[in-house]
Amino acid sequence: MLLDVILCGMILAVALAAVSGLGVFRAVVFFVVHGVLVSMAWLRLDAVDVALAEAAIGAGLTGVLLLSAVARLERLAGGGAWRQRVNVLPAGLAAAGVTGALMWAFLGLPQPAGLGAEVAAALPRAGVENPVTAVLLNFRGWDTLLESVVLLAALVGVWALTADDDWGARAGVAQHAAPGGVLEGFGRVLPPLGLMVGVYLVWAGAAGPGGAFQGGTVLAAVALLLAMAGLAPAPRVGAPALRLALVAGPAVFLGVGVAGLAWGGFLRLPPDIAKPLILTIEAALTLSIAVTLALLVLGRPEPGDGA
Amino acid sequence: MIDALDGIDGLRDAASMALTGLGLAFFVAGTLGLVRFPDSFSRLHALTKADNLGLGFLALGLALQADHWGQVLRLALIWGLALIAAGIAAQLVARAALAEAARRRR
Amino acid sequence: MIDPALLYGLTGAAVVGLGLYGFLSLRHLLRRVLAFNVVGSGIFLMFGAAGYRGAVAEGTAGADPVPQALIITGIVVALAATALAVGLILAHARATGRRTLPEDDT
Question: In this complex, do A182 and B81 lie within 8 Å of one another by their Cβ atoms?
């Protein structure tokens, strides 16, 4: 209980530091710390799968994305003194009002019934033992299928911003790591371990905490490290093999869903073969998630804009 | 070591507490250094040295509570990865600080 | 003795407020996107805390898996939206040389 109070206080303090104060770099650092603390809050709420996702995606990948955006933005539009804030008083009043309303609504919530018992009752037919994975890939397969399409759509949006001359170039800005430097050494040590951890998280997700999103994020981080250390250049956007990797997950998911029509409905998985079907979907989905997330963080190709 | 302590749970718990307590002390020292030291390099020194040791003692204390060797192995892996990551990050931050200092002198 | 789920739910509400304040008052576009992510994490926290209350009320082991799955989906979608927003901000900065929106230039 004392731990919860301290943790909540730290979450609030760090969130305040992330939205106040000067300097965008400092704000991003506080945001990453905020993500790590929130992921600890998820552990306290018995949501280990969410904690993994928050730490890997909410804190890790978002942090990398924002930090590299800070550096790129400073080069594009750096310098010059200007006012940091506008409308401080109305914004503060609006925020206080919304917070008050939300707290009042939360306190007034009827004791929620929850779906845990129903999920537990249906779990033997789901093909996996981890209830969260069962919900993600079986009971609420619709959400996850459309989510994988949303990821793809976001990448299409980022790529659509590419300058005409840059299409077909390597994703992101050119990376320069010192040859033989520490980053390159790190880039050689970590990927084998990262691959193992990523695949393990996907495999373990059937029975315990983990899954395609968490494992895919670790794999994306490995790919990003390789690109940043200059060991493996980022792929060229629009390459056929890359497109195939991007659509593999949604396509396999959709295919299994359509095949489910023969069994009784779209995205229905027959209980007898639910486990191999889920593993097939997860394997393809992990590949697509890893590639899509890495490319989202790298951004549009800007070959003329070296880091 | 774990086998020898089996059956003497009290002793094992005491050792766990002592080790995690020691680890926490290192974390406090490292944080103090991070807040109080004057420049980037000494702050890095305080942070990496103390936190690596702190995490090591924490892992050691937790390893005593492990049910089987797989968990001990995973704890060791986590510590090893954190060691490598902290070392690399310290190198990169120090290099950036050095470049910044050189730029300021010019 | 407060229910921990209640504590985290109220914390989530306050985090939403802090994020909203940043979103409305900050001019730097990246900081606005960051503040929007803070709002998202507060909403997830409220949702997860409500789900935890439901699971406690039911007496089932572990938190309710349905909100957990939805929150994981939400975290991933938030990253996708952030990446698209960052791409747009960079394109805006490249086109205009600014990191703020014209209507905020007062």
Answer: no
